[in-house]
């Protein structure tokens, strides 16, 4: 695990981008799920602690000012936030957001038309623990960690494409209810949430996992419909593992060829401009249901 706060690490990643984008005619560059911290308890290196103290302009009593753990009689750990807990979440997220802005610049310097994007888990309510705020910096939603400062760390405007792992065996909310499963743990709910947190700053694509539907390929049909109805596309993880079994289903689902929105040059800029115009005129989108997803989904 590399330290994203370390400028040497950042420069190394930019060098990789320059090598790939500078020497190959790529359509885009997508960072996978590892564009995040390992967890809430990483990283507490001396470098990171010194940078955090500089960011908050004060000495910090480590780790109590950030967070500690207490334990129940059954030894279940419970997080105890310190006075700088929210500032710590913001600090970590801002580092990754700053990095995506610079990484995007490197990609576009070599390939102006190439897409720059990331993959992340679809349960946004879990991601403050990992320092990746892939939402729009103007997101207004009822998550307790979404303070004004944390909201502004949203990296959505740095992305062309956001793929989220909606890895659930139920495609739709109705399907989940019929099967006695949680409505939030569906491709449909994950896609709705991903699309709404992006808030027109990036294209969103719902990812599904093919093993969730094996060995009954027909069960993937509602998932494909849910993904493409709630986001601007679908990504199928591990398709190559069972391609022969599922290919007839995919051939039928995509028998009519169409261009995806992210394949149309300039369309994202138009969508962003329209959203900005709506905001200026006071038009706000209605509240959306925050179906709770499963922690760790898509990791």
Total E-strand runs: 7
Average of per-residue pLDDT values? 94
Q: Provide the helix percentage.
A: 25-40%
Measured distance between first and last alpha carbons: 15 Å
SSE run: HEHEEHEHEHHEHEHH
Tally of alpha and pi helices = 9
SS-derived structural category: alpha/beta
**What's the gyration radius in Å?**
20 Å
What is the overall silhouette?
Answer: globular
Beta-strand residue fraction: 5-15%
Strand order of the largest sheet: 1-4-5-6-7
Instruction: Count up the domains.
Output: 1
Q: Please give the largest β-sheet.
A: 5 strands, parallel
Low-confidence stretches: none
Task: Describe the structure concisely.
The chain has 299 residues and is of the alpha/beta class. It contains nine helices and seven strands. Strands 1-4-5-6-7 form a five-stranded parallel β-sheet. A two-stranded antiparallel ribbon has the order 2-3.
Please explain how this structure is put together.
The chain is an alpha/beta fold. It has one domain. It is 37% helix and 12% strand. The chain contains nine helices and seven strands; from the N terminus they run H-E-H-E-E-H-E-H-E-H-H-E-H-E-H-H. A five-stranded parallel sheet has the order 1-4-5-6-7. Helix 1 runs parallel beside helix 3 and helix 6 runs parallel beside helix 7. It is globular. It starts with 6 loop residues before the first helix and ends in a 19-residue tail after the last helix.
């Amino acid at each position: 695990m590399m330290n994203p706060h370390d400028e040497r690490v950042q420069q190394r990643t930019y060098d990789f981008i320059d090598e790939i984008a500078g020497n190959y005619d790529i359509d885009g560059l997508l960072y996978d799920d590892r564009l995040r911290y390992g967890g809430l308890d990483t990283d507490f290196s001396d470098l990171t602690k010194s940078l955090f103290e500089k960011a908050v302009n004060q000495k910090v009593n480590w780790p109590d000012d950030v967070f500690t753990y207490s334990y129940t009689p059954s030894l279940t750990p419970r997080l105890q936030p310190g006075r700088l807990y929210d500032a710590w979440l913001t600090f970590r997220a801002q580092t990754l957001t700053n990095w995506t802005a610079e990484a995007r610049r490197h990609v576009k310097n070599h390939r102006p038309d190439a897409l720059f994007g990331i993959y992340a888990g679809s349960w946004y309510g879990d991601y403050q623990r990992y320092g990746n705020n892939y939402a729009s910096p103007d997101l207004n939603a009822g998550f307790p960690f979404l303070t004004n400062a944390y909201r502004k760390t949203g990296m959505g405007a740095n992305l062309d494409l956001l793929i989220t792992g909606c890895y659930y065996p139920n495609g739709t909310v109705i399907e989940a209810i019929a099967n006695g499963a949680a409505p939030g743990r569906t491709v449909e709910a994950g896609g709705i949430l991903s699309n709404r947190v992006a808030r027109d700053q990036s294209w969103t694509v719902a990812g599904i996992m093919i093993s969730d539907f094996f060995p009954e390929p027909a069960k993937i049909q509602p998932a494909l419909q849910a993904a493409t109805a709630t986001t601007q596309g679908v990504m199928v993880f591990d398709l190559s593992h069972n391609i022969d079994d599922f290919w007839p289903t995919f051939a039928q689902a995509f028998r009519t060829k169409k261009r995806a929105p992210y394949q149309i040059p300039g369309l994202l800029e138009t969508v962003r401009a329209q959203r900005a115009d709506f905001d200026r005129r006071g038009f706000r989108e209605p509240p959306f249901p925050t179906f709770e997803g499963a922690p760790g989904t898509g990791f």
